[in-house]
Amino acid sequence: MKIAYFSMEIGLNENIPTYSGGLGILAGDHIKSAADLNIPLIAVTLLYKRGYFIQTINPFGQQEEVYPYFDARAFMEPLPFKVTIKIEGRSVDIGVWKYNQIGTGGRVPIYFLDTDLASNAPEDRLITQYLYGGDQHTRICQEAVLGIGGYLVLKRLERGITTYHMNEGHAVFLTLALLKDNDGNEAKVREQCVFTTHTPVPAGHDKFTYEMASRILGDYLPRNIQDLAGQELLNTTILALNLSRAANGVSELHGEVSRQMFPGYNIGHITNGVHHLSWTGPEFEALFDSHIPEWRLKPQMLSEAVNIPDDAIKKAKQHAKRRLIQYVNSVSGAGFTDEFLTICFARRAAAYKRATLIFTDLEYLFNLSFDRVQFIFAGKAHPQDQPGKELIRDIVNTGRQYENRLRLVYIPNYNIWSAALMTQGTDVWLNTPRRPREASGTSGMKVCFNGGVNMSVLDGWWREVCKNRVNGWAIGDDEDQSDANAAADLYQDLDDMVTTYYANPRQWLSIVKHSIADITPVFNTHRMVLEYFHKYYR
Predict the structure, then answer these.
(1) In this structure, which of 4, 271, 493, 516 has its CB flanked by the most CB atoms within 10 Å?
(2) Which residues, other chains included, contact 332 with Cβ-Cβ below 8 Å and sequence gap of 6+?
(3) Percentage of residues in the chain having pLDDT higher than 90
């Protein structure tokens, strides 16, 4: 048995810029746990020579993007062959690079597909240059390379693949290649494919006109494509649902939302997790090694964290927090201290995530947080997302305008390295999306492995485990709650949190212990990958 895992982006480490955010980080953690557990997985993605951008913030608080060249030769080996697909009737050659993800129990080969070859036309060499950097035409060409090209690569390299796992609809064109190889037998294709959707809003599902799809994909489109992918537009999610034996969302709530969005389809759920060996910082690694030595192979054993002495947890957290504060001060000159309650908000800058909700009543915030709380923000906006860029500018300028009343910094170029530093060092991870717009989320899970707590809207994964004021804080519980009411709930929680942190440190440490013991045993990718293995892969 072999499983082929297709993903448009995969985040393995900060040196390989083939990811932009949560989808890629989740894919990387999925692969890492598969390698640890010796699951027979093979992964396929695209090699982006210009990757995702490096973010800088100019003096006006505006995001600027830089696209450095990524030299794959430093990290992976080129394979001595290529495959060819047709795009708009042209032959497009696809080169292959191989990277081995080594785990504690085995390895997972990852094949990176590259069209930047001298044999290709100039426009085709650009297909795999940028991650999410192009228009609809570029996107459908990238998806053809990933799905059809990736299938042909595995046909050349691997034998015995029993399951193709499409991580989001970007990879769905592999089903068209499978249909062609199986003489249009949809049942045979369906037997081989499983599909995970990560998007709880209609706009997040890729759709293409049939004119564009026909022009680009040509003979790969079956005659009944509209029956498989939708009558008006080619909807990649509908195509994936129709040609998969199983489908799932990435949290319990997201499964419910997905079934409402696509009625008539059997969509289950497997809640996301994080790779505990990647995201636990050195301080808590040493703490867990000392008190729960089985945790590396069996993260479920972390349920015993409630028995770790308070002083040991407090000491580990102080050291992790000190690392974060030293870095923040070195890049910002903010003069932060590890004595203050530290709250981080770090994620993609998108309007629905409501990064500025906490600024709804600035006077209240000033009075509540002055000389007690410090805020660290980070996150990139998509280069074409102007509202997201305006959010960043508003946060940066708010910090500058009220620097004497509000301790706030914005750390540029959020990536795997800085995400690890922030999730390991922060006291509180703040999350304020409009429910149910966050399919799952995973950043808050990482905090729990490092003695931090979550304060979040009851969306995605947090809805499944939150015990308010026991293992974290819940912000409201009303899907239709206005921003003003959500902000009022946020301030009420923040008031309680600040009081607990300073006036009742014993209770704070109890919440920290339950954050570890209630959450980490379940919300890890070892549990997640085994769930995929038993429910969908076998």
Answers:
(1) 516
(2) 409, 411
(3) 96
Task: Read off the pLDDT of residues 71-92 as tens digits, 9 standing for 90 and up.
Answer: 999 999 999 999 999 999 999 9
Token digits of residue 482: 């206005």
Parse the chain into domains and list their residue ranges. 2-273+527-537, 276-522
Angle between helices 525-532 and 22-36 (to 10 degrees): 80
Whether residue 477 has pLDDT greater than 80: no
**Residue-averaged pLDDT of the chain:** 96
Kindly report the CATH number that applies to the domain delimited by 276-522. Answer: 3.40.50.2000
User: What digits encode the pLDDT tens for the residues 504-526?
Assistant: 999 999 999 999 999 999 999 99
**Number of other residues whose CB lies within 10 A of the CB of residue 373:** 22
The structure tokens listed for 285 are 């690694």
Candidates 134, 135, 116; CA nearest to 126 is 116
CA angle, residues 528, 200, 267, in degrees to nearest 5: 55
Distance, in Å, from the CA atom of 410 to the CA atom of 413, rounded to the nearest integer, reads: 10
Q: Chain-centre distance of CA 53, in angstroms?
A: 16
Instruction: With cut-offs at 50, 70 and 90, classify the pLDDT of residue 476.
Output: confident
Contact status, residue 518 vs residue 467, Cβ threshold 8 Å:
yes
What are the residues whose beta carbons fall under 8 Å from the beta carbon of 450, sequence distance 6 or more?
A: 279, 280, 281, 283, 284, 317, 320, 423, 424, 425
Q: What number of other Cβ atoms are within 10 A of residue 84's Cβ?
A: 13
For every residue of 484-497, DSSP letters joined together read HHHHHHHHHHHHHH
- Domain boundaries 2-273+527-537, corresponding CATH code: 3.40.50.2000
What residues form DSSP beta bridges with 114? 95
Contacts of 432 (CB under 8 A, 6+ apart): 345, 353, 354, 355, 357, 358, 456, 457, 475, 486, 490
Rounded CA-CA distance 116/157 in Å is 21
Contact 240, 195 (CB under 8 A): yes
- Tokens for 26? 């989740």
